[in-house]
Specification:
Blueprint (H helix, E strand, L loop, with lengths): L1 H4 L2 H20 L8 H5 L5 H22 L6 H20 L6 H21 L12 H18 L3 H8 L6 H25 L5 H10 L2 H15 L2 H27 L1
Helix pairs in contact: 2-4, 2-11, 4-9, 4-10, 4-11, 5-7, 5-9, 6-12, 7-8
Length: about 250
């Protein structure tokens, strides 16, 4: 524990990572929040990074739930939350059988294809599609599964939710509530798997004050940014995340 708590390099990485995660979760749908585990993994093992981040994510979610308590899309949540919980359960049961490198490559590839389709595909569509039950269940399950593995549920959720073209605040609130539920559910398997040891919980406690502050910044940013700029930033963020995931997966396999 002392090695982490007294290591200046850890804080040089952990503090920016936590701020990025909070701002992303607070106002940008959580996509860029996927960078939290990879950034911390530069200093500590990925599993430990995920365990340290989860209590902080839950603390952020408390702020987000209050901020967006009246702003969310019920139809989207009814489809994605049960599916997301199923995805967490699948991740828990199969945790010992899936390589994290493969998961990163898969999600990175899907996210990259999604962004490229948006950038170079047909932009003539005038109306947003209605929420699809099949798509909501599928992508909600994938989001829950990848969120369990490495808090990487943002891109799958956005693959389903972004094309719906919800207003900025409505999209952000819906994403915040979805991941608040998923993160709360993840506390059960993480505890049963023994991830919350004294070391990880102590590090989480040291970083805790930054969690609500960064989340609050994200909420404020989302309320003043234009929808057009919001979606440009979000899609570009997903693009960067996709490249990072693919790179990490390839390095891990070599």
């Amino acid at each position: 524990m002392q090695d982490i708590l007294t290591n200046p390099l850890f804080y040089l990485v952990a503090i920016p990572a936590l701020i990025i995660v909070g701002i992303s979760k607070g106002g940008f749908g959580g996509g860029v929040a996927i960078l939290g585990v990879p950034m911390l993994s530069l200093i500590i093992p990925p599993i430990q990074a995920a365990a340290i981040l989860l209590p902080l994510l839950v603390a952020m979610d408390v702020v987000g739930l209050y901020a967006y308590r009246r702003t969310y899309d019920t139809t989207v949540l009814k489809l994605t939350i049960p599916a997301g919980i199923l995805g967490v359960a699948i991740g828990w049961v199969t945790a010992a059988y899936f390589s994290e490198a493969i998961i990163r490559l898969l999600i990175g590839g899907i996210a990259l294809a999604f962004v490229l389709k948006y950038w170079i595909g047909d932009k003539a569509e005038k109306e947003a599609p209605k929420p699809s039950k099949a798509k909501g269940i599928f992508w909600g399950t994938i989001a829950g599964f990848t969120s369990f593995v490495s808090h990487a549920g943002g891109p799958p959720f956005q693959i389903y939710a972004l094309p719906l073209k919800l207003p900025t605040i409505l999209f952000a609130g819906t994403a915040v509530i979805f991941f608040a539920v998923i993160n709360a559910v993840k506390l059960i398997p993480y505890t049963m798997l023994g991830e919350f040891d004294a070391t990880n919980l102590t590090v989480s406690a040291v970083l805790l004050p930054l969690a609500p502050i960064s989340m609050y910044l994200g909420v404020k940013i989302a309320k003043v940014i234009s929808p057009q700029l919001f979606y440009k930033i979000t899609y570009f963020g997903v693009f960067l995340v996709a490249l990072k995931l693919i790179a990490d997966g390839l390095v891990a396999l070599t």
